[in-house]
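User: Quick sanity check before I run a bigger batch. Here is a single chain. Can you write out its predicted 3D structure?
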Amino acid sequence: MTKSLKLAGGIALALSLLSQPLIAQTRPAAAPAAAPAAPRAAIVPGVGVADLQAVVFGSNAYRDAMQNRAVQYKQVIDAAQARARQIDAELNRLITQFNADRTAKKPEATLQAEVNQIQKVRALGEEEIKRMMAPVDLSEAYIIEQITDKLPQAVQNVLNKRGISLLLTPGSVYFANPAYDVSAAIVQELNILVPGVQVKPPQGWVPREVREQQAQQQQQRAPQAAPAAGQPAPAPRPAGPQPEGR
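Assistant: Done. Predicted structure follows.
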């Protein structure tokens, strides 16, 4: 377990947008001849690049909600951090004891038992902190889902305004001129569409991927469909004993 509690999504990804103007280089008067100018990269119209994850994390709604979340869930976060420090202290004590016993050439069985105890305390501690932080993690999932619900419309607005017919992600591009980056424009559209979001999810709310899994499981458990229209259902079997055939 790390010394400091790692809060899921606690550090927003920085939105890196490059827009460096071309700097004209002047040739000294005493220079005998001008070096041939490098060809200027051509900008292909209709193409753009955007980091959609950074767009969400760079939106005003996300930043504001994360600040509000830290306030609304302060007691939960403080309690989890305090418990994490206690678990770390226990781990440090066990590790110190193990190192001392290893130096003292204690039996291998004793050392192995101490290693098992360290691993057990660490695993149980991680599970405990995860349970304590569950409301905080669920809050971030709720925040992100509210924003991503409007992300397709924000992207479409930018595509329409800039006449873009091909939008790429940074992961699919080896290099792109900063002029292609439309992330900032999508952030602006997203700020208009989503000026703010709720921090605390409603009772019983679960993330979209969980809802989809639940819906799929429910469909799998559903009874078989009724006979198709126009196809007669099997005749009911008469009650009572049936006459034997000759």
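The first helix runs from residue 52 to 58.

User: Great, the batch can go ahead then.
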